[in-house]
Amino acid sequence: MLNIAISDIVIADCDMKLGEKIRYLREVEGNLRGLNRAMTQQELMKAIRAELGTSMSQSYLSQIESGARPHLTNTTRQLLAKFFKVHPGYLVDDPDGYHPELLSDARTLEDKLDLWLVSGAERFRRDPALRQSLLALARHKNTRQCLLLLEAVMETPGLVERLLEVLRPERVVTPRAKERAAKKLPGKESQK
User: Fold this and answer.
1) Dihedral through CA 51, CA 53, CA 56, CA 62, nearest 10?
2) What is the pLDDT of residues 132-191, one digit of tens each?
3) 129 FRET partner, CA 20 to 30 A, in 18, 33, 68, 180?
4) CA separation (Å) from 72 to 17, 56, 62, 114, 120?
5) What is the helix (H) or strand (E) element at residue 137, kind and residue range?
């Protein structure tokens, strides 16, 4: 089995079995939902019931993940594909010799961006602010538009600094903020 990794985190395995794929999807979904961990099987069952209005048993899922049941029923495959927002054809064992670059266009650009951002968040898990920002971007409905907007903001002179100053003053000290702080200090000292 070939691992594709960034740093010390396995991003994807080639020749993945169905159970491994479902565990991987629970991990991604948990991170996208802000849990900072994989969803448990029980949490997955509750979320499916709440969001899709239908259910499946946790023991059935456990059998699939353990390999005791090698195949899904079509109904369960459709249910899990809808919940995880993946193509139903993904929820099968990979054939021998499978490589991720053979993925079809079934996964949209948004899905690829979101998975890339979640992977990045895991890579930078020791920087909580950056990790949270990447996960928030991955959770956004229009990830691509957010990235294009970020480019426009960065290309506008002074806009990044101004936005940080207004939206996140506690996180950054801009030249303008330093200048204002310097002006305030002498005034306070003269009042003493």
Assistant:
1) 10
2) 888 888 888 888 888 989 999 899 998 988 888 888 777 665 566 566 666 665 544 444
3) 180
4) 12, 12, 12, 26, 31
5) helix 128-139
Q: Render 41-78 in DSSP notation, one character per residue.
A: HHHHHHHHHHHHS----HHHHHHHHHTSS-S--HHHHH
Residue 9 has pLDDT above 50, yes or no: no
Interatomic CA distance for residues 21 and 93, integer angstroms: 8
Gap between the terminal Cα atoms of the chain: 71
**Cα dihedral sign, 44-2-71-114:** positive
| Tokens, residue 79 | 């249910």
Task: State the DSSP code for 95.
Answer: P
